[in-house]
Structure formats: C-alpha cells, structure tokens
Amino acid sequence: MVALTRTLSPALAGERLGAVLMAGLLGLGLLFVSGFAPTVALHNAAHDWRHTHNFPCH
C-alpha cells in the first residue's frame, strides 16, 4: 500500500501564511476598534446595520 503524503509548495505555504496573518490583523483591529469605541457609536453602528438589512430593532 502506498502512503500518500500532502506537501505544500513554497508558494502555497506563503499564501497560507499571508492569509493567516491578514486574518489575525483583521481580528486584532476589530478588537482594538470595538474596545476603544464609545458605546453610543457601537450602538448606532449596530442599529444602522439592522435597518440596512431590514431587521426590526424597535
């Protein structure tokens, strides 16, 4: 029986690393922005999003 091994080419490994780094930076950015934003600004953003997507909020 032949064992199949999966190897990544250097180009694919670099793309995967880039995607992981970008996702991490985006996540940290969202945490930073939401952590330091005033509560009213977050409420208004969520409220506007709900109206944009036709969800009732009142």
What does this structure look like?
With 58 residues, the protein is mainly α. The protein is built from 2 helices and no strands. It is elongated. It starts with 9 loop residues before the first helix and ends in a 6-residue tail after the last helix.
What key phrases describe this protein's structure?
mainly alpha; 58 residues; 0% strand; transmembrane; transmembrane helix; membrane; CbtB-domain containing protein; single chain; 71% helix; CbtB_put
Set down the secondary structure blueprint.
Layout: H1 10-36, H2 39-52
Q: What ranges have pLDDT less than 50 throughout 5 or more consecutive residues?
A: none
First CA to last CA: what distance? Answer: 64 Å
Largest sheet geometry: none
Please, how many domains?
Answer: 1
Extended strand count: 0
The fraction of residues in strands falls at under 5%
| Tally of helical segments | 2
Gyration radius, rounded? 21 Å
Q: What string, H for helix and E for strand, traces the elements in order?
A: HH
Helical fraction: over 70%
Mean pLDDT: 83
- Indicate the overall shape: elongated
Transmembrane segments: 20-42
Protein name: CbtB-domain containing protein
InterPro entries: CbtB_put
Pfam families: CbtB
Summarize the structure.
The chain has 58 residues and is an all-alpha fold. It has helices at residues 10-36, 39-52. The mean pLDDT is 83.
